[in-house]
Amino acid sequence: xxxxxxxxxxxxxxxxxxxxxxxxxxxxxxxxxxxxxxxxxxxxxxxxxxxxxxxxxxxxxxxxxxxxxxxxxxxxxxxxxxxxxxxxxxxxxxxxxxxxxxxxxxxxxxxxxxxxxxxxxxxxxxxxxxxxxxxxxxxxxxxxxxxxxxxxxxxxxxxxxxxxxxxxxxxxxxxxxxxxxxxxxxxxxxxxxxxxxxxxxxxxxxxxxxxxxxxxxxxxxxxxxxxxxxxxxxxxxxxxxxxxxxxxxxxxxxxxxxxxxxxxxxxxxxxxxxxxxxxxxxxxxxxxxxxxxxxxxxxxxxxx
Length: 304
Ligand code: CP
Description:
Radius of gyration: 19 Å
Distance between the termini: 25 Å
Number of helices: 9
CATH superfamily of the largest domain: Aspartate/ornithine carbamoyltransferase
Mean pLDDT: 95
Low-confidence stretches: none
Structural class: alpha/beta
CATH architecture of the largest domain: 3-Layer(aba) Sandwich
Helix content: 25-40%
Shape: globular
Bound molecules: phosphoric acid mono(formamide)ester
Strand content: 5-15%
Order of helices and strands: HEHEHEHEHEHEHEEHEH
Largest sheet: 5 strands, parallel
CATH class of the largest domain: Alpha Beta
């Protein structure tokens, strides 16, 4: 089976640091024609702006050609074709498949039936490992290091696949966590146990004000309407946090605000003008990191 990236656990600490180094190189020199003979398939069963377009940009900048779809309704899945048959077919056409799918575990399943590497571009509330790698890159670029930082993760910590993957990746780097969420959207027990087993300190809070001052990275998330089965539950928590510029007074000068985006109401527009806002640059970093991941999985990073 070819090496895929399904969960952040698929990469060792050394591999993670290698990807970040290669991404730095790609940021310095944005166009590398090293995949001129490759075809990359981007198949998206769920909506996306950043992930799909940054993967397509990354593929183009590496010289590869891109095929795929962003609406499964226009494919033979609408006629009843299974995910297994779809992946088998696409892996006959492409050298690597980038897939987003709403079902948890679908990306792992795809990697088991595919003859080419699969990159998980998000599987339900489970994992979003390429977002994690670009988050790590953004943290390293802004703080100058990954070790010994305090992260405050805010919002939908229950369904937020980006916070689940980031928490696990940061466990290599002696972090401290604050988890700020309403009772309904607390960080799931399995992730808290993961931290306890590794003696990584964390505390849970329900208020955002008062928990920003000592933070190095404020990781904001959207409350994801699409993950709720009960609309009333969503209504109760959808506007629970709203970060405004005035709330940033007294925070560390180099504190940076990250957000996987899209945002809805959780970060006010006036925050964009502060030196703490980093989320748009973070999204740009996705191109360089995804270039590095694609090149690595296709065995092209050894001689860079
Ligand atoms: N961060 C992220 O996954 O954004 P998209 O849903 O737009 O791809």
